[in-house]
Amino acid sequence: MPDRVYLDLWFRAGPHALARLRRALSAFPFSPRRPGIAGARIFALDWAQPPLLDETYPGGLSLDELWPELENALGAACDLDDFAVELTAHWDLWHFQNAAWNLTPVPVLIVAAGARFDPAGRDPDTGQVRIEWVDSGLFLADSAPWTRPTHQRIRANLESLLGYVKKLERSGLSKRKVSTESGWDLVQQLQARAYPLQ
């Protein structure tokens, strides 16, 4: 069963949640083959409410095109205290499928929620911005034979993730954490899988 991977991000105090989301997106490695934001949803109060905005953008929207839509849907509540924004984008990762490696645009969710959004269901370990991949196998490639190309592709995926985090650290990131839905230690597994062939 797929095990979701989370990258939780916290930024230094100052900007409101919508600004933190934009900061996370400004360094995001959008896939050149599937650029921009592919979908956007906004929820008020908790996840059980119908979305205030629920749009897909087949051609992808730039941040400059997306931002007026988010601000219009949020009205005056741009601090996002009672709201959550969920965006879909694509990140290129090496993927082993049909006995071959391909650089594939992988869908990811990018979520930012205000401090008062869904207090009953809120996990205290969730970052101010969370990036979510649907399957840890995208990073570990458990089905691939252990060869030098497998090592190189897994390492390239890991370096893509680390490169994104390093860019954020230069723009106000104060804390980050990688975790999985199952609670299993992805970082340890990645190190074991990516670095044995030195």
Describe the structure in your own words.
By secondary structure, the chain is of the alpha+beta class. It has five helices and seven strands, in the order βαββαβββααβα. The protein has one domain (5-194). The protein has a seven-stranded antiparallel β-sheet. The chain is globular, with a radius of gyration of 17 Å. The two termini are 31 Å apart.
Question: Keywords, please?
Answer:
198 residues, alpha+beta, seven-stranded antiparallel β-sheet, 5 helices, globular
Strand content: 25-35%
**Element-by-element helix/strand order:** EHEEHEEEHHEH
Low-confidence stretches: none
Total domain units? 1
Q: What overall form do the CA principal axes indicate?
A: globular
The number of helical runs is 5
- Largest sheet report: 7 strands, antiparallel
Radius of gyration: 17 Å
Topology:
Elements: E1 5-11, H1 17-26, E2 37-44, E3 53-61, H2 63-74, E4 83-97, E5 100-113, E6 129-133, H3 137-140, H4 148-169, E7 173-180, H5 186-194
Antiparallel strand pairs: 1-6, 1-7, 2-3, 2-4, 4-5, 5-6
Tell me briefly what this model is.
The chain is an alpha+beta fold and 198 residues long. The protein has helices at 17-26, 63-74, 137-140, 148-169, 186-194; strands spanning 5-11, 37-44, 53-61, 83-97, 100-113, 129-133, 173-180.
